[in-house]
Amino acid sequence: MDTQFIRNFSIVAHIDHGKSTLADQLLLKSGAITQREFKEQILDDLSIERDRGITVKARTVAINYTFEGQEYELNLIDTPGHVDFHYEVSRSLAACEGALLLVDAFQGVQAQTVANAYAAIEVDLSIIPVVNKIDLPVTRIDEVLEEIETVLGLEPDDALMISARDGIGVDEVFEAIINRVPPPQGKSDAPLQALVFDSKYDSFRGVMTYVRIMEGTIEKGQRIKFMREGTTYDVLDIGQFRPEMRVCDRLGPGQVGYILTGIKDLGQVHVGDTVTDARQPAEKSLPGYQLPQQMVFAGLYPTDSSDFEKLRDSLQKLSLNDSSFSYMAETSDALGFGFRCGFLGLLHMEIIQQRLEREADVDLIQTAPNVTYELLLRNGETKKIDNPQEVPDAGSIQEFREPIARVNFILPTTGIGPIMQLAADRRGTYISTEYLGTNRALMIYELPLAEVIYDMHDKLKSATRGYGTLDYDVIGFRAADLVKVDVLVKGNRVDALSTIMHRADAERRGRNLVKRLKKEISKHQFEIAIQAAIGGKVIARETISALRKNVTAKCYGGDITRKRKLWAKQREGKKRMRQFGQVEIPQKAFLSVLEAG
Ligand code: GDP
Ligand code: MG
User: Where does GTP bind (predicted)?
Assistant: First the structure.
């Protein structure tokens, strides 16, 4: 295919501004899906995704569109919207020449609109501003255009006015993509350079590698090489998503599709890698991606210790599909063998945990997440800490440093007061306020990352009746008065419950924590003391009194169905419990640390 007639673009937007709806419209108008499928999709999205093992809904779709008598191939590369996935967004953007930046006609520019626009600007894409939902009974179109100009620095006259839901202005979107997004560069006879921008494990076909061809041509049967590992394979199949997988003979410069090589060894395919021809390799690999930095860590342990290998396998499979999380085997006195996993944020952590439980069928115990800390030791060494257990004696620490985030809040001006208060409570440093029109503002703060990730989003939503949005970037580490707080249950330190916190908060949070634990841990035959301590010093204590009577006693001699029920219940209860010393600690207790804020 002549590159002149190819366009590669993404749709970026703040969540709910209409990306998926517009993607569906583009598929519908181009005939890639029928009206019936359009409706079905909305209903069946998840089951279809599961059944086919591939997102039908515009993950990466090649669309044919005829404009002024000429047929074009438009490759739409979808991007996720949440702050945790900036990395994924920039990855998709690197495979495009243009981006549609959607802005809700009422809500206007929001925190993720800014973040996504900057990500697109950074990789030099042509950005087409699109004001969506113009059908709404109340819109703020003039102000929204002004925000597009002042906040994003884009030309408001270039903005398209559409309603993705009602299909208004969609033809203009096609026209703008064709006229304003530059065609890809690249020669079909040059040595092959294909960017691996995603990959997926399919239990029948093995590893599916998603590529965007930069230079050269890839064909079925060709011997290719993954440049990073230097491994070579035959191309068994190649194809495009239309939106279903459809095989084709070759992909040329600018085209986007998948390749199948029968790779089963998951370690072989890396997102950001370059695929080249094994016989005539390209001289250099493509710049690839900056590796994302995991800032949030938590321990994941199988509830049943015999599931350890199963968990390792599943982590490996998942990491192929999502290269932005990390895992390393670790052991805990309390929880046995498990993994220390690194995530981009809390949402990312939740998703990984859910996917593991669903896809791998392993019950997990997860420890409370913590951010990465940095220590300057008295011996001059600096040390990264991903796990509170690794914090040495206070005596050997010169400086305890925590990650700092630069946070952009976009909010109604009525939210300014509450956010200033919140930021002050969270040890924030005020940077600036900029007014966007008459009743909205962009406020910038520097805040400890730990204070941002846990519940800042919820707090912001409640302070602004849902209208505020935030986005953040980690800008570095700063010294703070931090301490490690340990938890002792019946005199034994439970390593998986240790946390790092600010000294000024330690007493209050320590007290809340032991109170919570008291609620989570049920009564035993004996008294259980729960203590929070810094070093050897106890800062809070609660006691769980002993059970008075033996609950099983009443079953002796009782009828057998009742006994069976009780046993079944106990088995159920055992899932997600861990015996520690003589004390059973439920999964929820390990997360109490989080809620003790
Ligand atoms: P995404 O999160 O950016 O993918 O947003 P969605 O496409 O899922 O849309 C979010 C919500 O906005 C859905 O309820 C859509 O039906 C609605 N929506 C999308 N486009 C329009 C539009 O043009 N007009 C109106 N009134 N609603 C829309
Ligand atoms: Mg969506």
Answer: 16-21, 132-135
